[in-house]
Write a structure and sequence with these properties.
This protein is of the alpha+beta class. 16% of the residues lie in helices and 40% in strands. Strands 1, 2, 3, 6, 7, 8, 11, 12, 13 and 17 form a ten-stranded mixed β-sheet that branches. It has a three-stranded antiparallel β-sheet with strand order 9-15-16, with no helix packed on it.
Length: 270
């Protein structure tokens, strides 16, 4: 059995915490739904009845780790398209000129948004059908089927691959107690996929508990084919760990090609 390791770099990224508005907060690493969306984009899956989605994406086990150098907060404007906002800005429903320039209709609302800078992500993927992992790897090497520019987070949060995707034999991963501050954030899912007798106890691992989105279904998609339509998400309970892991067994990727050894916590969504 093998596991696929992906390494990404992003100059900037925002993984929005969905219940924040006036100030838009970000998770320090992408949630599972963001990574799944990336894979759907990569594989060019326009239809959720596609075999690659049902038998492939839906049965993936995903581990997400990452770090960033600094977080900044930016001031931005959001467009408000209500008539009252337009009138407040331009003085009249029929007017679109301000300061001698024609502008877009509507008003503007000031917002702040948290941005992560110099983001490094390490994502591990496992599937019982290794051919599907090879399909992901091959599409990364030649992303001809992608639906749009490859990104994680916002559409403008482009990614750079840090090295080639690698299929690693499970036997090369270490299992045991490796107490350390790993200097990365990790999602630790309540249901961790286990290899053989390599038990990892969710309750022994520290972290703040979140309900993270995983898979989404687009309402009425088969009639509208609107990939930006309203989505209904499924969720999984997971801890956000800040890298400090002590007094418990973990699965560890300690490949010399990695700058840091990385614990693996594969989310099992079935």
């Amino acid at each position: 059995m093998r596991i696929l390791r992906l390494k990404f770099y992003q100059p900037q990224a925002h993984y929005r915490i969905p219940f924040t508005f006036q100030r838009r907060h970000t998770y320090p690493i992408p949630p599972y739904s963001t990574v799944i969306g990336f894979l759907i984009n990569l594989l060019g899956l326009k239809d959720q009845s596609n075999e690659l989605y049902i038998d492939g994406i839906k049965n993936l086990k995903i581990s997400i780790a990452g770090r960033f150098e600094i977080k900044t907060t930016e001031k931005i404007w959001f467009r408000n398209l209500s008539k009252s906002s337009h009138k407040n800005r331009f003085g009249s429903i029929k007017n679109r000129m301000l300061g001698g320039h024609i502008e877009h209709f509507g008003g503007q609302s000031p917002m702040t948004i948290d941005i992560l800078n110099d983001v490094h992500l390490i994502i591990h993927l496992f599937h019982t059908n290794e051919t599907f992992l090879e399909t992901i790897r091959d599409n990364i090497l030649n992303p001809a089927k992608r639906l749009e520019i490859l990104h994680l987070g916002r559409a403008e949060d482009w990614i750079v691959f840090e090295g080639l995707p690698e299929l690693i034999d499970i036997s090369k991963l270490k299992y045991g107690r490796y107490d350390k501050d790993y200097k990365h954030f990790f999602w630790i899912p309540e249901k961790i996929f286990q290899f053989d007798n390599k038990t990892i106890n969710y309750f022994d691992l520290p972290g703040l508990i979140y309900n993270l989105p995983v898979f989404s279904e687009i309402e009425n998609y088969h009639n509208t084919f609107n990939k930006n339509g309203k989505r209904q998400f499924s969720f999984i309970k997971a801890k956000l760990n800040d890298g400090k892991i002590y007094k418990t067994n973990i699965l560890l990727d300690s490949d010399p090609q990695l700058i840091f050894p990385i614990p693996i916590f594969l989310g099992d969504f079935q």
